[in-house]
Design a protein that fits this description.
By secondary structure, the chain is an all-beta fold. It has no helices and 17 strands.
Length: 202
């Protein structure tokens, strides 16, 4: 095993080249640029960097990293069925279809999701800050981020803090079953197993 140590803003960082066990049993884990979040049977835990409140805590200020190797239990007490992380944030999909996000970007429940609104079955957060999700009916929605390259997929380059429907999705050939958000682009797979992408094309 090779171990490396470094000093970063007076906090010691260690590295391991071989797998080691974390303290808690998780059903799934998502990684951001400097933080990680995991699902247990009943809670969501996050640990690592906190400069944009990735750990959903109230201490630390933007641009001034706070690191914690002890997992934080996310304050929002609803059972989650999926996590997805961007570079500096995380979103959780709850069993009732509501989405909650924290870290960089707007924090809290995503407007218009959950009972009485859009019920998501799967979500994906992109490196550039936008998040997308699909519904049981195959419709795709995206929100947040800059939308410089049309990564929200609604035919505009206007940003939106609320989910906007991906043009044409949910009917015809664009009935999606899975979606993935990348760095200024998005791709999704239809029920017929065809892939469609939109956004940056460089």
């Amino acid at each position: 095993t090779i171990k490396a140590r470094a000093q970063f803003r007076l906090r010691q960082i260690t590295a391991e080249s071989s797998p080691f066990s974390v303290r808690t049993q998780y059903t799934s884990i998502e990684l951001g640029r400097g933080h990680a979040c995991g699902l247990t049977a009943g809670d969501t835990h996050c640990w690592g960097a906190n400069e944009t409140d990735q750990l959903s805590r109230d201490y630390g200020t933007f641009g001034q990293p706070v690191y914690d190797s002890v997992a934080t239990v996310i304050w929002y007490k609803k059972p989650s069925i999926q996590l997805t992380s961007s570079a500096n944030g995380t979103c959780a999909l709850h069993a009732d279809g509501e989405v909650l996000c924290w870290g960089s970007g707007p924090a809290g429940p995503v407007p218009g999701t959950g009972p009485g609104g859009i019920i998501f079955t799967q979500i994906s957060a992109g490196e550039s800050g936008h998040t997308c999700g699909v519904t049981a009916g195959g419709a795709a929605y995206c929100w947040n981020g800059l939308n410089f390259f049309g990564e929200l997929g609604n035919g505009t380059t206007d940003p939106s803090a609320t989910p906007v429907l991906v043009s044409g999705s949910g009917s015809g050939a664009l009935v999606f079953k899975q979606i993935g958000a990348g760095h200024f682009y998005t791709c999704a797979v239809t029920v017929a197993e065809s892939a469609y992408c939109w956004g940056a094309n460089s």
